[in-house]
Amino acid sequence: MLWLFFIMNLLGTVYGYEWYWLQMVDTIAEKPLWYVYFVPDSPTASLFFTLSVGYLILDRSRGSRSGKVYKAIRGFVEAFALITSFKYGVWAVTMIWAGAWQGVPVGWDGWMLTCSHLAMAVEALLFVRWYTFRIPAILLVACWTLWNDFMDYERGVFPRLPEVLVNNYYRTIEGFTISLSVIGILIAFICLGLRQKKQR
């Protein structure tokens, strides 16, 4: 089952980077090179979720590891997977159907993206019971996530959206995105608190 999740999310990640490819190329051509790291939001979230599943597979095959560096890296990956997969899963579905509400057609790809991004949010919440992240990892991911929001909406590298949404609801979308970041961070802290309470 873990291998199935790993393979499906890996394929989705590859497709996601391909979907963002033209925007990444344009960003490299028009803006400082390092801006490109903040362009592919959903596939990067999916990549980290895939890596988090990889850690679970390693635990099953070789047993749990206890090295400090290993734990720190794994905790960061898992916190990143939870916060960003929840955030961009909900965000993408909301943007697709906000566009539909404004008359933008939802084709087969819109339905596919809806299902895949809903799955991103749900699976991140389902897998959180096996995550091992602690407060430093959450804080690091929180910094990245909020900085990514700044880059998206103050430096213009947000995912390409229908013009009707950008022209009429830009600041609303910005506020909604930041709100999802805060909610994702709070979810991580709540899950950590519940895990620590259970371990007592």
TrEMBL record:
InterPro entries cross-referenced by the UniProt entry: DUF1405
Chain segments annotated as transmembrane: 32-58, 79-98, 110-128, 135-153, 173-194
Keywords: Membrane, Transmembrane, Transmembrane helix
Pfam families per UniProt: DUF1405
Source taxon at top rank: Bacteria
UniProt name for this protein: DUF1405 domain-containing protein
Organism name: Paenibacillus anseongense
Organism placement in taxonomy: Bacteria, Bacillati, Bacillota, Bacilli, Bacillales
